[in-house]
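Z., the sequence and structure:
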Amino acid sequence: MGLRAGAGFQADASDLTQEVMRAVAAVASRLDYDPRKGSFRGWLYTVARNKINDFVAARGRQCPGTGDTGIQAVLEGQAAPQEESLWQEEYQRQLLRWAADRVRGSFDESTWQAFWQLAVEGKSGKEAARALGITVAAAYMAKSRVLARLKDEIHQQLGDDAGL
């Protein structure tokens, strides 16, 4: 039996969050981070995934037998192949939000809007330039400047562990 939305879902999610935090706290004092062995984010993902698997397995042991083969429960407990990809995508979105909040004040509004419309909203250069009253080249230059600043900010704060 996997995690399911419903009455107990929030409680289960809170319990799992606490378990992950306990596991991280237990090793934090003796953690010797070596980026050559992998990213901290990757390690944290593994800890979280293992705690979820432990939770699902424990629940499976607690459930009374129904007479079926239990294949459905086993399948529900397995991580979906795209799970790590979704984790990475969400991490990237949160990282962009964080960095954007930190650097936005460094740019005038038209530069920021050119970047946002091209990079985030996916507008064409012509559309963004027309909306902002600038040339297409200026829109792309603005996008490039903001992207470079975002990357610098992320690498300054997170180093190679940023996952970019």
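The CA atoms of residues 57 and 94 lie 30 Å apart. Helices lie at 9-28, 40-62, 71-77, 83-103, 109-120, 125-132, 136-158.

Let me know what you think.
H.
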